[in-house]
């Protein structure tokens, strides 16, 4: 159980190389839904919610979740977990 929850947005100026691994995608990346590959969109924003890992570069075990806001065709926005999407080819 987490006693303290922190958040950081994808374009937070406090981000540096230590926490860059929290975001697998960047603004503007084209992505597809893993369960429905026909659903394509563009990363509009992202937020990491949870407990920050120790301040060590390369730590790959964060205690939280990264969520992304995806802009779909027709100006529709959808919030997804990073495990639900992957980078679109080409």
Mind explaining what this structure looks like?
It contains no helices and six strands. It has strands spanning 6-9, 30-33, 40-51, 63-72, 76-81, 85-87. Strands 1, 2, 3, 4, 5 and 6 form a six-stranded antiparallel β-sheet that branches. The model has no long low-confidence stretch (mean pLDDT 82).
- Secondary-structure content class: mainly beta
Net shape: elongated
Biggest sheet descriptor: 6 strands, antiparallel
Poorly predicted sequence stretches spanning 5 or more consecutive residues: none
Average pLDDT, all residues? 82
Strand content: 35-45%
How many domains comprise the coordinates?
1
Helix proportion: under 10%
Roughly how many Å is the radius of gyration? 14 Å
SS element count, helices: 0
Would you report the number of β strands?
6
Give the distance, in angstroms, between the N- and C-terminal Cα atoms.
Answer: 41 Å
| Helix-strand pattern | EEEEEE
